[in-house]
Amino acid sequence: MHLPHGKKIYFASDQHFGAPTRELSIPREQKFVKWLDQIKEDAGVIFLLGDLFDFWFEYKTVIPKGFVRVFGKLAEIRDSGIPIYFFVGNHDLWMHDYFEKELNIPVYHDNQEYTFGNKTFLVGHGDGKGPGDKGYKRMKKVFASPFSKWLYRWLHPDVGVKIAQYLSVKNKLISGEADVKFLGEDNEWLVLYAKRKLEKKHYNYFVFGHRHLPMKISVGENSTYINLGDWIGYFTYGVFDGETFELLEFKD
User: Which neighbouring-strand residues pair with 11?
Assistant: First the structure.
């Protein structure tokens, strides 16, 4: 993928808009929109790596209401010609084709490989990767199955969205602190996942979200694992200028 001279690649993840309530989420949405306004001046590509919403489900003719500021800004940026790529997370797992049809933003449900200049990237949300967490991996298969989605659609949207929002906000990544503590390189499962992938193929950068903790860790010779943090407490994002990758904090 060609990166025009003077342009940069931006990465962000785990905004969880809608949590803990729609009203309390709005200031974070406004801050994110300001960030998008700032980066559109030199963005060559924008990657959103999942959990943009704390809950998302697409019925055939209905989506969760709200998030107008975010949708409007993404539409404006995409219409200006800047590519945006979206990777579903575990909270917006049930995203289908709304982004593709309404915003012209491709949606991916698994990792993707990219090459910018002479640098190779493996990009994704990060949930369900690496060793352990077998319970979640089994649960994800159930929730991601076409039958589960078909069954859930039979719930009236007012009921289905309300139940899912309640359960989603109770998720420990939002309400607890245990999962935003560094576990050490030997226990960070996405670090272990990156090292395992390097046994078969070299990547310069592994870029993920999901952990809600900003991290930049060497995983091999000329290979770095980056976790983007979140837009709940850290407001961090990644930027690649064609040569180097930085993990930065957005300050309003």
Answer: 47, 238
Tell me how far CA of residue 1 lies from CA of 42, 46, 226, 234, in angstroms.
16, 13, 20, 30
Quick one: 167 exposed, middle or buried, by C-beta within 10 A (0-12, 13-18, 19+)? exposed
Q: Which DSSP string do the residues of 118-150 spell out, in sequence order? A: TEEEEE---TT-SSS-HHHHHHHHHHHSHHHHH
Q: What is the mean pLDDT of residues 117-133?
A: 84
Report the C-alpha gap between 190 and 211 in whole angstroms.
9
| pTM of the complete model | 0.87
* pLDDT of 65 strictly over 90: no
Q: Is the dihedral of CA 187, 189, 190, 194 positive or negative?
A: positive
Segment 160-177, tens digit of pLDDT:
667 666 666 665 444 345
DSSP label at residue 103? I
Which structural domains are found in the chain, ordered by start? 8-249 (3.60.21.10)
| Cβ partners under 8 Å of residue 206, min gap 6 | 121, 122, 190, 193, 194, 197, 219, 223, 224, 225, 226
Distant-in-sequence, close-in-space partners of 178: CB < 8 Å, separation ≥ 6: 172
Tokens 């800004």 belong to residue: 73
